[in-house]
Amino acid sequence: MSATSGIGVSQDLRDVFSAAVDSKRVRFIKVSIQNETLVHDVSYAVHGSLEEDLPILQDTLDDKTPAYVLARVDDPPTEWLAIFYVPDSAKVRDKMLYASTRNSLIKSLGSTSFTDSLFATSKFDVTPEAYQAHKRHQAAPQPMSAREKEMADIKAAEREGGVPYRGSQVRTSIVGTGVGLNWGADVEEAVKGLAEGDARRLVILTINPATETLVLRSSSEADLSQLSSALPSSEPCYAFLSLPRPTVFIYSCPSSSPVKHRMIYSSGASGVYTSAKSLIPNLAARKVETSDPGELAEAWVKAEIGLNAQEDSQPVSQGTSGGGFARPKGPGRRR
Fold first, then answer.
1. Alpha helices by DSSP H, 231-314
2. Count of structural domains, the chain
3. Using one digit for the tens of pLDDT, what is the confidence trace for 86-102?
4. pTM exceeds 0.85
């Protein structure tokens, strides 16, 4: 059976629902499928709150027959809850028919009127207690990935520290005024040196929060195979790795590091990258970010920046085609 059954809504059902929306006195509208058409079965008036009226459905619904119930919610009374009742004991054909028709029902009556839906496989799923559990589930925070949890912690720390969060594009740096961190002469010299020569070098920078200054932690010859072991495993850092072409910017922020440190480095990462672009003409457009330095395997980093193994080991001629990372020619190769 296709995703949609092609079954339409009867004009009588349209009229009943339209009148119920206008009157605000109808609590439930039961809908069933008859002769390949969605029809109105029965309606019930509002007597109390939705939870107080739900027991009505225990006598209305059949243990083995699917049905749709359109229920008016209490606040605001202009909104509706769609209950899709398909009991486990129903015939397989009926289950499939009602499952493939529910979208047609909602769209035909106006999807903007329905702000919530409830799937029921027995009458126990439409009791007041079940509806309360449904609302608690709807209000509960959605599960977050490790990265999302980390960013939520950073935002919370920013709020506690009085730093406004306005989105990633306009965040104000917590360690500066939004302009960026201070660069020492040794830091600038080390980063700028990556654009000169063909050596593979790794420059690792950290932040001194007291002076809002970038600190040169180390500058040494290294390649991708040594990257994961060279970065600090328990504290954030910025790193620049010359391949030699391109040079890659890496922001490493281990999940185990203190929230305050993660907040500082997260706020300053964009400014460091932007400043470095004026010093390193061949800085890769794609940045590498990780919460686990141990995951920075050579193949993974190359994939992140769009660089494959063949392009890393061979010069790229002007006529070479392909979707990989096109490396700029070095000095002296221009014609």
1. 259-277, 298-305, 309-313
2. 2
3. 999 999 999 999 999 99
4. no
